[in-house]
Amino acid sequence: MYKRILVAIENSPADRTILDHVERLARLTGASLLLVHVADGWAARHYDELQLRESEEMIADREYLDRLRRELEAAGFVADACLKTGDPAKELVKLIREEDVDLVAMATHGHTGMADVIHGSTVNHVRHHVSVPVLLVRAQPQP
């Protein structure tokens, strides 16, 4: 069914929700995982344009992604990790189109009204601009 699942990683507690769900799905289908985080701080958004060095935030994001990848590999999964920079919605769509993925998995936060307009823009942009299925899982509070 699924061969390669792109998992959008936020570097937040919401990641555990989406990873728990995707791990079960990947075990059932034998899919490999591509963990992606888009750093979007000021330095990240201007990283290429101004030829900046990686910010502390970007370094921490890369370390976090690598740690998650190693944990997944230790649990028997085939996993890759990719740190992108810039606008999360645009960069995710670009990567989804470039990579051979057949499912995108993202955590949502269940915002409504104006909060959804402010915080839900990445999910909405991605789901409207890709041709592969998008799995949205509501983030659960972590203990």
Verbal overview:
- With 143 residues, the chain is α/β, with parallel strands linked by helices.
- It has a single domain (4-138), classed as Rossmann fold.
- The protein is 45% helix and 22% strand.
- The protein has helices at 14-29, 42-45, 56-74, 88-98, 114-119, 121-129; strands at residues 4-8, 32-39, 79-85, 103-108, 134-138.
- It has a 5-stranded parallel beta sheet with strand order 3-2-1-4-5, with helices on both faces.
- Helix 4 (88-98) runs parallel beside helix 6 (121-129).
- The termini are far apart.
- Mean pLDDT is 86; it is low at 111-119.
SSE topology sketch:
Layout: E1 4-8, H1 14-29, E2 32-39, H2 42-45, H3 56-74, E3 79-85, H4 88-98, E4 103-108, H5 114-119, H6 121-129, E5 134-138
Parallel strand pairs: 1-2, 1-4, 2-3, 4-5
The poorly predicted ranges are 111-119
What's the mean pLDDT score?
Answer: 86
Strand elements, count: 5
Q: At the third CATH level, what is the topology name?
A: Rossmann fold
- Can you tell me the number of structural domains? 1
Largest sheet: 5 strands, parallel
How does CATH name the architecture?
Answer: 3-Layer(aba) Sandwich
Key terms for this structure?
single chain; 6 helices; alpha/beta; Rossmann fold; 143 residues
A few lines on this structure:
By secondary structure, this protein is of the alpha/beta class.
